Structures are given as C-alpha cells and as structure tokens.
Amino acid sequence: MAGVLLQIGLLIWVYATLWFIISLVARRNDVADIAWGLGYVVVCAYLFQTQVKASVPLLVYTLVGIWALRLSTHIFLRNRGKGEDFRYRQWREEWGETFYWRSYLQVYLLQGFLLWVVALPIVVGGISAAQEWTICTYLGILLWGIGFFFQAVGDYQLTQFVKTRKHKEEVLQTGLWKYSRHPNYFGEIAMWWGIFVIVLPIPSAWLGMIGPLTITLLLVFVSGVPMLEKRYVGNAEYAEYQKRTSVLVPWWPKAG
To answer: I want to staple 184 with a disulfide (CB 3.0 to 4.6 A). Which of 122, 154, 158, 177 is the partner?
Structure first.
C-alpha cells in the first residue's frame, strides 16, 4: 500500500500544481473549489487503471465519481459570471506581496495533502480486489445515499433561494435548511462515512477511517461551519435561526 500511496501523492502534487497555474491565468483562487471534487476522480481513475477491477472498488469509484462530478459542476455553475469567492478575495488582500507563494502552499498544496488523506478509504478499497458484498456494503450505500440527498438537495435549495431572496442578509430557513443550518455539509460527511462503511470488512480498513474523520473535523471545526457562521455574526435574523435550528445533524426545530 505504501507504494500506491506514494504514487498517488506524486499524482496529486502534479494535479495541484496544474490548478495553481490555472488560478494564475484565471486570476482567481476559487478554482481550487472546483479542483477539490475533480481530484478524487483523478485518484479513482488512477486506481482503476493500476489495480484489479473488482466489484467493491468499482462501487467505491462509482459513488465517489457521482459525488465529485456533481459537486464540481455545482461549484462551477455557482461561480460562473461572478467575482472571486469572498474567502479567497480576503486572503488575496491579507497576503499582499506573499500572495503567490502562500496561495501555492496554503491553498493548492495543502488542499492536495488533504485530498490525499480524505481519499484513503478509496485507496483501501482500490487495492483490496474485494468481490463479495456484505451487510456493510449495503449499509454504506444507504448512508452514502442519505448524504448525497442532503448535499444535492441542500445545494439546489440554496441556489434557488439566492436567486429570489430580497436582500443579502435574508436567511434560508425552509426545506432541508429548516432542520439543519448546514445540510450540505452534513451530506458530505455522511457520504464519506458511507464510503468507509463499504470498505470496513477489508483488513486495512482502519487506515481508511482517517479519511472521513478528517473531512468531519475540517467541516465542523475549521473551513466549513465556522467560516460561514462567522460570516453571519451581527445578523439578527440568523441569530434567531441559530436558536431554533440544529447546526449540522438534521433535527426538528425548537419551538418559538
């Protein structure tokens, strides 16, 4: 496995460097968000070409590919015709003269490293040559399906809301967003744990657990929920929304 991980690491380094060059040409760093999902397609394609084409890894590649292509397409369509995302624009202003090398290290290479870590359950499945489906396979598919529903539907509802909202401070509080302030992040976390459950019967599955654990910690404590919650500080409508609505795991809103 060590050799495969090293090869994938080198592949991701080339991939991240290519997207850094694209960002310089496009003059916007938020292309990194599009690159995130597509990077997993690259990993799956590499494993498909170099490893045994067994039933369980083919299932993993398919599920990851569906998630990745939908997410990258969604982000591309969301950003098309708009300025650079506020997070990257803020970094551009803060970093000043160090912008280029910090972008390469702190955006593209760091994202590439995280991609490599989160992709560990894909690698575990890819090198296993596992053919037999177990109860874990079906439970993992179910968990992945629940996650995909929450992310895809949540993203769609948010996209439609942004088109029709009356002002920028208005808060989406209907649909899935009535039950979770971040249903799309809940969906992504659920999908990755679903992939892990699928590869759970494989002897080296413990290594794959690092992937969903990492994405969970990132979205809950670092780059997902905290950044968006901070953006709404001072918004009275959002403060009331916070009191009623679960931050991540969907649940019935509190009365009043």
So the answer is: 154
Average pLDDT, the chain: 94
Mean pLDDT of 224-238: 90
Domain boundaries, the chain: 1-131, 133-256
Q: Please, are residues 179 and 252 in contact by the beta-carbon 8 Å criterion?
A: yes
Of 24-28, 78-82, 100-104, 143-147, where does mean pLDDT reach its minimum?
Answer: 78-82
Judge contact between 182 and 247, C-beta under 8 A. Answer: yes
Q: For the purposes of burial, counting CB atoms within 10 Å of the CB of 75, is it exposed (0-12), middle (13-18) or buried (19 or more)?
A: buried
Six-digit token string for 10: 């080198």
Within 8 A by CB and 6+ apart from 237, the residues are 169, 170, 171
CA proximity to 5, closest of 151, 155, 144, 211 = 211
Rounded CA separation 217/191 (Å):
14
Are 188 and 66 within 8 A, CB to CB? no
**Residue 202: is its pLDDT beyond 90?**
yes
- Report helix angle 110-118 to 210-217, nearest 10: 130
Residues contacting 132, CB < 8 A, separation 6+: 55, 56
Angle at 65 between CA 61 and CA 69, to 5 degrees: 170
Quick check: 121 and 206 in contact, CB under 8 A? no
